[in-house]
Amino acid sequence: MASPAPFADGSADQNPLTRLTLDELRQRTSVKWRMHPPDVLPLWVAELDVPLAPPVGDALHRAIDLGDTGYAHGTAYAEAVGDFAARRWGWNGFRADHTTVVPDVMMGIVEVLRLVTDPGDAVVVCSPVYPPFYAFVAHAGRQVIEAPLGPDLRMDPAALDEAFRRARACGRRPAFLICNPHNPTGTVHRRDELEAVATLADRHGLRVISDEIHAPLVLPGAHFTPYLAVAGAENAFALVSASKAWNLAGLKAALAVAGPRAAADLDRMPEEVGHGPSHLGVVAHTAAFRAGGPWLDLLLDGLDANRTLLRTLLATHLPSVTYHRPEGTYLAWLDCTRLGIDTEQPDGGPGVASDVAGPAKMFLDRARVALSSGHVFGTGGAGFVRLNFGTSPTILTEAVTRMGRAVDAHRSAG
Ligand SMILES: Cc1ncc(COP(=O)(O)O)c(C=O)c1O
Q1: Distance of CA 214 from the midpoint of ligand 1 (Å)
Q2: CB 3.0-4.6 Å disulfide test: which of 45, 97, 148, 232 passes with 198?
Q3: Does ligand 1 lie within 6 Å of residue 46's CB atom?
């Protein structure tokens, strides 16, 4: 059967990343486009420079036309995710009755932490990692323990073992918050790595919460394994959302999913948490998982091409920057330590996503390119920048060209 036409206008260029001009993007009012003055190319926060996927736009227009703007209800979101998981990841263990809709992924993580840990308990994270992991865990009154990734940017079993042991020693009900795929490195954890996590977590008595927001964004060459599909993960949780892959962060909704031995815990989620998700968010996310697959395939092709373009651009303009080719996400983790830029940190602590220091500050000041500053991702982040390549090849090319010129100017200045 022919798949549905991804674009209503049937235009030849179907790459969602080439559909909007810089002038059109600058009309947006989201944080990506309004945090910095208009001469800055924003390649920092994880928003995509794409129009809405047509099935998502259609579902939203239908809801608006109907005045269907009340409260969210029902299991449509969960069922759409379950079908998507079976189709894309070959996972048939998903149970809609073991899920609950939450306002967004980070609120979902906090609410699950409240179910399975107590104030003061330890939460292990693999640094460098998405800065709000630090901020939200601290805000929820839990303490972060880091298990740094290895030099290959993959989870390090020895570091995990040590962190789990420390977590166990300092708290009664510790947890491990895993980022799968991993932001900022784009590492897609393999099944054997996840099985090793499950074994270690079981040995040390940690509950695992898997943030799978980037799961639909696994690029050619890698395969996504849902943590809950792994043997030994039956008492774990996952958080799933359409917000990164279909650029729906402003339409608040996400899904908390419990493994079979965590379902009773999820049942204790207070009813009021379910008042947080936006009904239009649920409508949009459901449409994305249900009918947004063909559009997602076009996006992944565009991201794969950008991933290769970025390699070429860096080799040409910034040869001393090391690029670890991401397996998933639209985020590139660039090692700028050889640029010799002072990496002193303004406040010393991770977690504040908008803090800018070191190479990111130099690129902002001299290239007028906004990147995420590595130091806010925790141990292992200083001297790195995170670049969001979910944009047009034209903008990507202009940004890296400017970054190259900035390094030259920085070197000649002294
Ligand atoms: C790993 C990860 N988790 C969570 C989020 C935020 O998700 P939400 O807006 O649903 O809380 C992001 C956003 O970039 C992310 O990269």
Answers
A1: 8
A2: 232
A3: yes
* pLDDT tens by residue, 144-169: 999 999 999 999 999 999 999 999 99
C-alpha 352 – ligand 1 centre gap (Å): 14
Which sign, positive or negative, has the C-alpha torsion 151, 157, 162, 166?
A: positive
Neighbours of 343 (CB within 10 A): 20
User: Closest ligand 1 atom, CA of 45?
Assistant: 14
CB of 246 closer than 6 angstroms to any ligand 1 atom:
no
Q: Are 175 and 121 in contact (CB under 8 A)?
A: yes
Instruction: Tell whether ligand 1 has an atom less than 6 A from the beta carbon of residue 242.
Output: no
CA nearest 121: which of 196, 179, 172?
172
From ligand 1's centre to the CA of 44, what distance in Å? 13
Instruction: Give me the chain's average pLDDT, please.
Output: 94
Atom 14 of ligand 1, residue of closest alpha carbon:
46
Distance in angstroms (rounded) separating the CA atoms of residues 310 and 397: 8
Torsion angles phi and psi, residue 332, rounded to 5: -115, 135
Other C-beta atoms within 10 Å of 376: how many? 29
* pLDDT higher than threshold 60 for residue 4: no
Token digits of residue 363: 């690129």
Distance between CA atoms of residues 87 and 279, nearest Å: 25
**Is pTM, for the whole model, over 0.85?**
yes
Q: Does the beta carbon of 81 sit less than 6 angstroms from any atom of ligand 1?
A: no
CA of 212 to the centre of ligand 1 (A): 9
**Distance (Å) of CA 208 to CA 93, 202, 341:** 17, 9, 37
